[in-house]
Amino acid sequence: MHSVELPVEALPSQPWVQRLLPKRLWSQALLIQCVSMLLMTGLAPGVINSVFAFELRSLGIRLDSVWFWLFPHICVVSVLAIAARMPVWWRWIHVIFPVAVIFMQQVALPATVYFAGFVITLALYWSVHNTRVPFYPSFPSTWRAMHHILEQHADDHSLKVLDIGSGIGDLAMFLAKQRIHDQVSGIEIAPLPWAVSAVRALFSGTSVTFTLGDYRSINFAELDVVFAYLSPAVMQDVWQKVQQEMRPGCLFVTSEFPVPDVVAEHIVFPSAHSPALYVYLKK
Hints:
Elements: H1 16-20, H2 25-48, H3 53-58, H4 66-83, H5 88-107, H6 111-125, H7 128-131, H8 140-154, E1 160-164, H9 170-178, E2 183-188, H10 191-202, E3 209-212, E4 225-228, H11 235-245, E5 251-255, E6 266-268, E7 277-281
Parallel strand pairs: 1-2, 1-4, 2-3, 4-5
Antiparallel strand pairs: 5-7, 6-7
């Protein structure tokens, strides 16, 4: 297990673009899309009626086609998203969203398809507004690294392991298969991922169990290891529960998001493309 000391860095100053934007990322994304669309709407009449329009039409380029204006729109929203220092995955949303909207308009799917998509999305993310935790699937390299952490911590003893925010159950089922004497379980608040994990558990050939509910209802005093892949918004609350309930010598492991202002006992890097694991030993 590799460990490093976390450097203390000064907080970077916000760029002027970011200071002008709303605080919430979804509000920033909506504003950026609207600004770009207004810009395209203002430019379109002048370009369509310009002297170059005839030559472009002779080349088969239709200036009145929405697809023609899609590329400059994507360029503008990408530049604005970078200037606002939005996370990389939000920049990809800026690119994919307008393409998806235009494509769906062209295809003209029946309303039942949109309703089904809404129901699936609701079942997957319905609790995000309350928990502030989106769906984060873990990586196979993370599963293997977590298994290695358990092997070092167990010292030939069986462990009670809980994955909070267990999603579709990948990590918990992997650990249950590798350590058959451990009592591995997961808890998930979103109904769709929980349902998938519960069905998978039935055919996994292991004793792993999954509960639909909030991790705050679980007594951490009964556990030896707690694993979390949640979000920075809740790490302080989870750590407070760990401090209040877990027994000395037990482990709390979080993927990607460390506990604020607390130095981890170890930091494990599963692979070059996987988030770090922060390992905390309850004193």
